[in-house]
Amino acid sequence: MSADEEKPSLPVSFEQLAELEDDFEQVDLELTRVQDKLTKDLYVKREKIIADIPHFWNSVFEVAPEEFEHAFKETDGELLLALKNLFVTRFDLPNGDPRSFSIKWEFEENPFFEDSVLEKKFIYRQSTKGDVSGLVSEPVKIHWKPGKDLTNGLTDLVLKVHAEEKAGKADEETDAKKELKKKIEDTPLGDLSFFTWFAFRGPRITEEEHKESLKKEEEKRQLRKAGKPVEDDEMEEDEDEDDLFDKAYEYEPYPAADDQALCIAEDIWPDAIKLYLQSQEDDILSEFDDLDDDEDEEMEEDDKAEPASKKRKA
Amino acid sequence: MSADEEKPSLPVSFEQLAELEDDFEQVDLELTRVQDKLTKDLYVKREKIIADIPHFWNSVFEVAPEEFEHAFKETDGELLLALKNLFVTRFDLPNGDPRSFSIKWEFEENPFFEDSVLEKKFIYRQSTKGDVSGLVSEPVKIHWKPGKDLTNGLTDLVLKVHAEEKAGKADEETDAKKELKKKIEDTPLGDLSFFTWFAFRGPRITEEEHKESLKKEEEKRQLRKAGKPVEDDEMEEDEDEDDLFDKAYEYEPYPAADDQALCIAEDIWPDAIKLYLQSQEDDILSEFDDLDDDEDEEMEEDDKAEPASKKRKA
C-alpha cells in the first residue's frame, strides 16, 4: 500500500478531531460506569467461588500479561503463595471518576510481614499544564518482619520522603531524599522486589490542580460546542509534561507500578478465571512434557486431566 | 514463582465456573448494546469529518493490528486508494444479537471493479454440537472489470459453490467444488488478494441450528440457576467442532477473514482516528529519516509538521 504520492496536510482542523475524541472519551467513561454497576455483584459471587481454590491469584499471575514479565523475583514468589485474595474497586463510583481504583491484597500469615491486608489506591488526576494525566498514589506502609524486608528499605525510605514533602519540605534536598536517590541508583533491576510496587507515588498533581484542570477542560468543551476558537497550548505542554514526570521519577523506585496497576484493573481482574484456567492447562501441558522424558511413569494421572476451557471461535 | 509443590485438582465444580463465565458473558453482551447506543451518533459525526480527509481508511490500514500484516498485496494497495468510506454496523441491534455486524466498503471509480459499495455481513451463530460458535457470512459478488479480477476467479468460484449448496448439492462433489479446491491449493499465500476476504462463508451453521442451540443454552442456564445437574457433553464436542470447521475450510480460500472482520469491528473501527493520527506521525518520522540521508533538502516542510496526537499517561 502506498499513499505517499500526495501527502495531505490535515484538511480538517485539530479542533474538530479533538472534539470528536473528547466525545468518545466521555462515552468510554460512561461505559466504565455501566460496566461497574453491572459486574459489581458478579465479582462478589466470583470471590466466594475462588476462595476455595488454593493459590488462585498466584496461578493467575503466572500467566499474567507482559507488564508482569520479570516482575516477581524468587522470594516475591514465596510471598505470593501467601496471597489469599485480591479485589479491585472503582471506589469513586457511582458518582465520581471511573478512572480511579483501588487494589486490595489479602495475605495469610507469612514469614515476611505482619500485614494481613495491603490496599493501594490509584487516583486519576490531570494537570493544568496541558493534556497530561496520571495515576497518583500514596505509598503503602508494609510492616516487614525483622530482616525480612524484600525491598531492602526502599518502601520505608519512600514513606519517609513522602512524609517530609507533606511537612513542607518538597523542595528541600533532605538526607532521606539523597539516600533514596542513591539506593534507587544502586539497586539492579534484577534485585528489585515486586513489593516495591506498594511505594509508588506517581506525578505530583494535587487534588486542587486536578479540579482546576477539569474546569479548564469543561470550559474548552463549551467553547468548542459553541463553535468558538479554543486556545491551543500544545507547545508548552510538552516540556511541562516531561518535567512533571521526570521530577516524580527521580524518587520513584518502581516507575512501572501504574502500568501494572492498570493491567491488573483492566485485564487481570476481569479475566482472572480465564487466566487461572489457562495456568492449569499450561501445568498439564508441562506434565505431558515431563512424561515424554520419562515414558515409564504411569499415565492415569494425566488421563484424568482435561483442558479446562474451550476457546470460542468468535 | 512456583506453586507446583501441591498441584490441586480443581476444588470447585466446572458448573460453578461455567455459570460465572456465562454471567459475565451476558454482561459483555449488554455492554456492547449500551456502547452501540451511546456511540451511534458519534460515528455518523465522525463519518462527516473524515470524509474530508483523502485516503483516510487507506492510512488507517497502513498501521492496522497484526491481523492485517501481509494482508494487502501491491495491487490491493492500488485498489485501497479508491476506498472512500468504511462503516461498521451492528445491524441486529437494538433487539437482536450484538455479536452480528456488517462492514460496508464504499469505493470511488476505479480500474478494478464496477461496484461502488461492497457490504459484507457477519452473522453470529452457535452450533448445537457443543460449545462452538462462529461468524457466518454470504460470499459477496464483486463485478470485476475484464482481466482485472485480483482474486483470479476465486470469489466467483466460491459464489458458484455456494449457489450449488443452496440448490441442495451440499454433499455432492461437483466440478465447481473440485476446481475451487484445486485453485485454493495452487494459490500461494503471497499471491492471495485481500479482496478474496469478500468470499468468506464461515462454518455451516444454519439459523435453525443456531436457534436450537440458544434454546439448549437457556435450558442449561435455568437448570444451573435451579441448582440441578447439567449434562456435560464436552467430550463429543471436540470432534464435532473440528469437523465443523474442517468441512468449511476445505472450500474457504480466505480462512482468516472472520478474525480480520472482528479486528475491524472491535479495534480498527473504534480506534480509527487514533490509528490515522499514528499513520501521519509515522509518515513524518520517515520523512525525518529521509532528511538524515539527504541533509541538503530544505527543512521548512518538516518544521510545519507536528506530532498530531499526545499519548496520555493513563
Gist of the model:
Chain A has 314 residues and is an alpha+beta fold.
Question: If you had to describe this structure to a student in words, what would you say it looks like?
Answer:
The structure is a homodimer of 314-residue chains. Chain A is of the alpha+beta class. Chain A has a single domain (13-272), classed as Arylsulfatase, C-terminal domain. Chain A is 49% helix and 9% strand. In chain A, a hairpin with a 6-residue loop joins strand 3 (117-126) and strand 4 (133-136). In chain A, helix 4 runs antiparallel to helix 5. At the A-B interface, helix 1, helix 2, helix 3, strand 4 and helix 7 of A face helix 1, helix 2, helix 3, strand 4 and helix 7 of B. Chains A, B: Residues 208-221, 305-314 have a biased composition (Basic and acidic residues). Chains A, B: Residues 231-244, 286-304 have a biased composition (Acidic residues). Chains A, B: Belongs to the nucleosome assembly protein (NAP) family. Chains A, B: Residues 208-249, 286-314 are annotated as: Disordered.
